[in-house]
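ok new one. same drill as before - structure tokens go in, u give me an amino acid for every spot. 334 of them this time. try not to just spam alanines like last time pls lmao
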């Protein structure tokens, strides 16, 4: 297999995304990392951080270079306005989305094997008059994918979400049999094809406290969730649940599972982030490309200070690389 190429988007230019990309460039990588950004932004931020940075423009698919410490390959994407670390500017919102669009197109054109994203600031993008819910939904629309699934992973735990960025009062109405069926189909398919797990084992959380307690605390488990799970079990899938979310996250259960499916964002992700914050990765399942991301926000107060931690971005790159390798090798039989 040729050298792996991974596109990296630094996200919000006033946040720590450029900082952690520059920190990445201080070490050796076996993959070819190409940062989609304005080179002037990268150079000025490196100077502010006091870190060496030699910038070299990526020359396309024939370019086989990897970078020595202190070097960075970049794909130019011009800012709309100069950036002050920590100061948001809505005029640069389009620039942020342009970096994502470029990275996605490079992956769709098979010029890149994967894309890894640093954090964006949803608020400033919306303030610019651009409707934006998050990376997951943006990439779903950009790739014309009918449905994607958000999953976060850290060592020993993967948590996928049936619903993502919804107000809590809308979650129950969104949990339908067609939705759960589609989410589970994507989750199982991606565990097989992007993680090389031939027979995935999934634990599914209930929606209500105590998984509805036999209907006394809600009937979604009885009327919707369990019938869907039973259909998958009859097809030979290893699906357990629905289990109460307050008891399923224990080692005796998790050691028997490849992933947990939570019903909503703040049901599963607090546990995962407690377990692996700073070393967790956001993965978008169902896309025609591989995309991973950091598990943290823009941290505007840390931008340009040298105090940002690149750990999550390093983990996201390593996982993207593993997923690329998994797609190019036969699945294990055990």
């Amino acid at each position: 297999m040729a050298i792996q190429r991974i596109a990296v988007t630094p996200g919000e230019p006033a946040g720590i995304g450029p900082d952690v990309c520059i920190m990445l460039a201080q070490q050796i990588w076996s993959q070819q990392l190409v940062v989609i950004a304005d080179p002037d932004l990268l150079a000025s931020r490196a100077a502010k951080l006091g870190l060496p940075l030699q910038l070299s423009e990526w020359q396309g698919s024939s370019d086989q270079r990897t970078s020595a410490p202190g070097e960075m390959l970049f794909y130019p994407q011009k800012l709309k306005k100069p950036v002050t670390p920590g100061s948001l500017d809505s005029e640069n919102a389009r620039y942020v989305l342009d970096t994502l669009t470029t990275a996605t197109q490079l992956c769709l054109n098979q010029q890149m094997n994967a894309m890894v994203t640093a954090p964006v600031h949803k608020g400033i993008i919306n303030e610019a008059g651009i409707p934006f819910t998050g990376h997951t939904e943006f990439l779903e629309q950009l790739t014309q994918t009918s449905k994607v699934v958000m999953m976060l992973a850290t060592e020993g735990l993967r948590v996928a979400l049936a619903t993502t960025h919804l107000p809590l009062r809308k979650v129950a109405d969104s949990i339908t049999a067609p939705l759960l069926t589609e989410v589970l189909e994507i989750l199982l398919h991606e565990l097989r094809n992007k993680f090389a797990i031939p027979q995935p084992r999934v634990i599914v959380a209930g929606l209500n406290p105590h998984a509805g307690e036999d209907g006394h605390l809600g009937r979604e488990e009885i009327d919707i969730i369990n019938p869907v799970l039973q259909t998958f079990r009859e097809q030979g899938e290893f699906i357990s649940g629905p289990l109460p979310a307050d008891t399923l996250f224990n080692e005796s259960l998790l050691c028997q599972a490849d992933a947990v499916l939570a019903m909503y964002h703040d049901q599963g992700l607090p546990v995962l982030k407690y377990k692996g914050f700073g070393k967790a990765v956001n993965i978008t399942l169902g896309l025609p490309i591989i995309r991973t991301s950091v598990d943290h926000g823009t941290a505007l107060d840390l931008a340009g200070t040298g105090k940002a931690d690149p750990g999550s971005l390093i983990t996201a790159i390593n996982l993207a690389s593993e997923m690329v390798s998994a797609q190019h090798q036969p699945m294990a039989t055990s």
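The chain has a mean pLDDT of 93. and btw The longest strand covers residues 32-37.
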